[in-house]
Model the fold of this input.
Amino acid sequence: MKKILLILVVVISSCNLEKPTEFSNLALKEVVFDLKKSQKTFKSVLDTYRGKKILIDVWASWCSDCIKGLPSVKNLQKEYPDVVFLFLSVDKSQSEWKNGIRRFKISGEHYNLPKGMKNGDFVDFINLNWIPRYLVVDEKGEISLFKATRASDNAIVDALNKTI
Done:
């Protein structure tokens, strides 16, 4: 009985439930809007940057923690100029989203998840319950960092420095 329990504990603890390496098909099919109000799938956005490392910043213009993290994100942009910085806003209002980009001078690639942070296949996949949320996608399109909630998290730097 003890051996079975030990095996069960090892199997469960080795499962990587909170660290998927690829996006679900439903998450990839999620519709996002670009700054010109064009609809795209999340997959088509990722495909645009295939072969490059991508830091995804899930944020909103109304989120004080997101705004507090921007100086750290801007520092990362200076340190890693070859990385694509992909900002996914969960603002439900496109005008507030665009005003936030201008107001906080956020440079990078910008898309909007129009269903907000509580609805949609992408936010369900990443189990979004707090923003900001940072993910890193490597050059092969695999998720190398699934969850960071602070832009100053060393795991982000580790994932950006990781070579494939």
The chain has one domain: 22-161. Strands lie at 31-33, 39-41, 54-59, 84-89, 109-112, 133-137, 143-148. The first strand starts at residue 31 and ends at 33.
